[in-house]
Amino acid sequence: MAVPLRSRAPKKQSISTGRKSQRTPKLSVVAPRRRRWPAIFVGIAIFVVIGGMLGAAVFHTQLAQRQLEIDGLERSVDEARERFGALRRDRAVLRSPERIADEATRLGMVRGTTNEFVSIDPDALARQIAAGGVVSGDVVRVLDDADPLDQFRDVKAVSAGQP
Q1: Which candidate, 162, 161, 157, 160, places its Cα nearest to that of 137?
Q2: Do residues 154 and 143 touch, judged by C-beta distance below 8 A?
Q3: pLDDT one-digit tens code per residue, 86-127
Q4: DSSP class of 102
Q5: Do 139 and 129 touch, CB atoms closer than 8 A?
Q6: Widest CA span of the chain, in angstroms?
Q7: Cβ atoms of 155 and 163 closer than 8 Å
Q8: For helices 37-95 and 97-106, what crossing angle results, to 10°?
Q9: Helices (H), the chain
Q10: Taking the mean position of all CA atoms in its chain, how far away is CA 72?
Q11: How far is 126 from 132, CA to CA, in rounded Å?
């Protein structure tokens, strides 16, 4: 037969002391909980510092790229200014009266003997304009040599931007 190792009956308490002790010892299973907020604060601070450093690196990269673009634009402006200066010098040479007189002589032209101006009848001018049609509002406009850029604008306005 099998004999149980434990008995099922409740144990009897010994009544040797007669009374329970009033003092129970303090039991401590785990250490008291430490506060976690300093660790969380340090983690957030590190995250903010790393984010700030990455932001500064991105900002510096963007700044360097923009500076390269600005340098390229400044180079192209300098080249355009040099080209404009060269074109102005060429224009001055081509418009010089000596060169025009030499070129006219080479082409077989001679100086006129008279310096009379022909006056045109306003009715004849009106008929000619009506027959040919008006190209612009200022038909009898005289170019003024005040500013070369104004002449350039006038030429571009007439040619509609074509070279």
Answers
A1: 157
A2: yes
A3: 999 999 999 998 999 999 999 999 888 878 888 888 888 888
A4: H
A5: yes
A6: 160
A7: no
A8: 50
A9: 37-95, 97-106, 122-132, 148-159
A10: 13
A11: 10
Cβ-proximal residues to 40 (8 Å cutoff; 6+ apart), any chain:
none
Dihedral sign for Cα atoms in the order 60, 65, 68, 74: negative
82 vs 104: CA distance, rounded Å = 31
Amino acid in the structure at residue 146: A
Start-to-end CA span in the chain (Å): 123
Q: Is the pLDDT of residue 39 over 80?
A: yes
Retrieve residue 2's tokens.
């099998």
Q: Give me 100's structure tokens.
A: 């025009």
What pTM value is reported for the model?
A: 0.40
Does residue 151 contact residue 145 with C-beta atoms inside 8 Å? yes
Query: Could you give the C-alpha distances from 33 to 36, 41, 44, 56, 95, in angstroms and in order?
Result: 9, 17, 21, 39, 96
